[in-house]
């Protein structure tokens, strides 16, 4: 398979967490993946096959019920307009590519991105979580949220669980 075929295949792999967050090959063997595992897998593939100008990014965006309708009223029942969420995607020749689902999620959040950084695949596991948690702690303080970090993280985990459920 060439890179375009691999991209198309990964794009149609269902959303879900893999059994080992450090083994990106599980995206294909377990037939599921998150934004992190899918895009890290593709970046690894590009690097191993000398495909240039493929970069991996973490973007922190405002996850809300408009750009993520599957959340239903999870956030509003908590009185929260949005939670900053970390999302991974690629940029190929500077053009964003998001294969998290069959439709580009990046297109729904591009106006809501608060910050983005380029990373290497092995950083999507621990570094992404640490980076996200640090951003959340700063956001909670700066926006005077009525919730502790642990409460916000719990609401966020509930949101991610909801997104992982099959329609």
Write structural notes for this entry:
By secondary structure, this protein is of the alpha+beta class. It has one domain. The protein has helices spanning 3-11, 26-29, 35-48, 106-109, 126-142, 149-164; strands at residues 54-63, 83-92, 95-97, 113-119. The chain has a 4-stranded antiparallel beta sheet. A hairpin with a 2-residue loop joins strand 2 and strand 3. Helix 1 runs antiparallel to helix 3. The longest helix has 17 residues, at 126-142. It is globular, with a radius of gyration of 16 Å. It starts with a helix and ends with a helix. The model has no long low-confidence stretch (mean pLDDT 92).
State the domain count.
1
Question: Beta-strand level of the residues, as a percent range?
Answer: 15-25%
The profile of the biggest β sheet is: 4 strands, antiparallel
Count of helices? Answer: 6
Give the radius of gyration: 16 Å
Q: Summarize the amount of helix as a percent range.
A: 25-40%
Q: Tally the beta strands.
A: 4
What's the helix and strand layout?
Layout lengths: L2 H9 L14 H4 L5 H14 L5 E10 L19 E10 L2 E3 L8 H4 L3 E7 L6 H17 L6 H16 L3
Antiparallel strand pairs: 1-2, 1-4, 2-3
Helix pairs in contact: 1-3
